[in-house]
Amino acid sequence: MIAKEIMTRDVIKIANSASIGEAVSLLKEHTISGLPVVDREDHLVGVITGGDVLRSVQQRAQKVYHTLLGPTHVIIDENVWRQDRDQLLKQSVAKMMSRSPITVTPDTPVGEIVDLMLRQSIRRVFVIEHSRMIGVVTRNDIVRWLVRRVGTP
Length: 153
Prior knowledge:
Elements: H1 3-6, E1 14-15, H2 20-30, E2 34-38, E3 44-49, H3 50-61, E4 62-65, E5 73-76, H4 78-90, H5 93-96, E6 103-104, H6 110-120, E7 124-129, E8 132-138, H7 139-149
Parallel strand pairs: 1-2, 6-7
Antiparallel strand pairs: 2-3, 4-5, 7-8
Helix pairs in contact: 3-4
């Protein structure tokens, strides 16, 4: 089995000029955890995930206190979070996206994709052909494929 046989072809994507708020809305609306980010020519330039958004919120709102003999204490300042929330949602996706999305070709074997996902601790790989994104393979795509094969000789 290879990537093009199990990939999702109708990929929900977002422009690098879109706002974080738009990305969060798409993630919520489609119940997905990440979006490929494309430029004006529809080339894959990055990926934005719910984890990226959460990390940004955490970095802005946390205060870290170190003690000489005890553990480090992290306190989330709710006031800072509320103040920064609207500014964060207005920022462009390009400022927060990961710029090195992991890609495979349509002929990449599923076993290699699984290995790549586990080694890189990622949930999706983008399928690229002739410099264009033609699909995405997610962990869920692989699990669905495995479930269909259970009991099949």
